[in-house]
Structures are given as structure tokens and as C-alpha cells.
Amino acid sequence: MADYAERACLANEDFDVDLDSLFARRNNHDIENDIDVPSEDVSACDDKRETEASDIANLLRSRQDRLGDLYPFNITGDERIIFHRDSTKTDIYVFFLLCSSFNYLAKSDQIAFANEFEKVCVAIVRKIFPHFQTEGFGTASSNNILTESHVWDRFTSLCGRLGTSVRGDVTPRRTNSGDFGLDIVSWFHAHEQENASHMPCIFAQCACTSDEAQMIAKQSDYQKATGKIDRLAPPLLLHFTPHCYRGTDGQWHDPSQIRTAFFDRLRLLLTIQSLEIYENVLAGLPPAIRTKIDMACSDHNFLQGK
Question: Measured over all CA atoms, what is the biggest interatomic distance in the chain, rounded to whole angstroms?
């Protein structure tokens, strides 16, 4: 709902929105369409609106407090949300917001944003683990070693790099689709001997989706790969999502759902800032993506009515 309010702000001609009025419109729509709120209990709708507006204002203030200059919205005392762009500091936030708003983007844009989100995450892993070899597995376009065009060839190449092999009972895949539940792979090799097994490795997923349940479920996708590999040390599991999975206290919305080293929008932005790679990440976004960010920040029709 907080993302809904931020998108509504970007879709308003003045790039600001009153949260109470915004949720009044939502709840009036609910009444007219008999969604959630019984038509005979309009007062319940008013209470729901006020509670939603207050809760969302607090959640947005929490984002503002934690992200500071990296956050492009200002939450006023009377619960208005106002967009303020500083392209050198806030555009990556807008990029992540769009990466988690696929219901509002054309299919071609969804693919482009998902690919670029994965590349940003590859850059982060490479910076955090500089002595590891880090490659994108979902796409070979940013790779130095795993450059095979066919996904099965790329998978067997990965196994060789890890000093492992594909299990003998696994049937080779002939269709060039899927990614074995791996978006990013990273490994360290001590050069102790050829084919040394049980090397330290990292498997990561990048979950660009508008569906929160699907985003959480993707934490288990790595099992599609680990079940096919012999002599594999338990990998460090990373999960990257452009969603902001936080409550007003800054803690996880539902900690029981977190089963990996979890990077949501807030942690990604603070990590990029801590690693001092903000300018590099921003400069690495291709012109087509930068244009979409510019449109979201300057043209209120970009997200309106989608």
C-alpha cells in the first residue's frame, strides 16, 4: 500500500497527493463495487480510510527517516506525500519502485527492468565479495566466464567451475529455457588442485514481481539446481527484491518468511550507499531505462490509469 501511495503521487499532475483523500477514493470504489466494505456500513469505510492513511503515512515516514536523501518523497505533517527529485540521489529509488510495479509497465518494459535489476545485483555481489567469481546465470550478457548461450551448457560449465558435476540420474535439458532457479552465482577457488570440490559458493535470486507471495516463494528456487549437483557445499543464499518488505519499525514485515540473506529495497539502497557505488550503478543503467525513469519523474501520465 505504501508503494501504491508513491505511485499515486507520481501519477498526480502536481506530483503530490493527500493520503486521506487517496484512500477515500479507494474505499469509495470498494463500496460501489461491494469489495470488502459492506454497503450498509459506510462509517466502517471512513474508519478504514483514516486508519489506512495514518498507517501508510507512518510507513512512508519510516522510509524517509532511514533513507534520507536517497528517498524522493516528503511526508508532511498533514499526511501529504510530495515528490522531490534529485536525479543524482533519488533515481535509483524510482528505478526500484518501477521494478516492483510490473502491473503498471508494458511487458517489454518488465523484461528490460528485470534484466537491469539483475545486473545491478550482480554488481553488488561483486563488490561485497571481490575475491569471488560472480556471474549472472539468468542472462549471460554481463558475464566474464559463463558465456554459453544454452542454459544447459551454462549449467554444466558452472558445475565444472565449482569442482562438481551434474548428478548421473539427471537427464540433460535440451530446451533452452529457464535458469535452474539461479539468477546469480558466485564462487571462490583456491587453485589448490584441478576439480577441487566443496568450494565456497553463493546462489542468488532476483525477484522482480508485483506479487509479494511469489517474491517470497522464489527464495526456494535454488533447490532446482542443488538437487542436480553432486559434491556441492551448502551455498550461501542471497535474495534480492525491489520490494520494500518493512514495517514502520524498520524490521521485516513478517520475519518468519525470511529464509535467506535478504536484500529488499531499503537494504539494497543502503548497501549501494555503503559500498560507495551509487554513481556507478546509476551510470550503468542503459539509456532506455533512464528514459523510463525520467518519464516516471516528469510525466504524470506515465503511471496514470495503468
Answer: 75
Residue 255 burial by CB count (10 A; 0-12/13-18/19+): exposed, middle or buried? exposed
Question: pTM for the whole thing?
Answer: 0.87
DSSP the chain: -HHHHHHHHHTSTTSEEEHHHHHHHHHHHHHHTT-SS-TT-HHHHHHHHHHHHHHHHHHHHHHHHHHGGG--EEE-TTSEEEE---TTTTHHHHHHHHHT-GGGS-HHHHHHHHHHHHHHHHHHHHHHSTTSEEEESS-STT-SS---SSHHHHHHHHHHHTT-EE-TTPPPP-S----TT-SEEEE----SSTT--S--EEEEEE---S-HHHHHHGGGTTHHHHTTEES-PPPEEEEE-SS--B-TTSSBS-GGG--SEEE-HHHHHHHHHHTT-HHHHHHHS-HHHHHHHHHHHH-TTSSTT-
Q: Mean pLDDT, to the nearest integer, of 19-29? A: 70
- Each residue of 31-61: pLDDT tens digit? 344 445 455 454 555 566 677 788 888 999 9
Per the CB < 8 A criterion, the answer to whether 209 and 215 are in contact is yes
pLDDT digits (tens, 9 = 90+) for 77-133: 888 999 999 999 999 999 999 999 988 888 889 999 999 999 999 999 999 999 999
Average pLDDT over residues 263-283: 96
Residue in 236, 239, 232 with CA at minimum distance from that of residue 170: 232
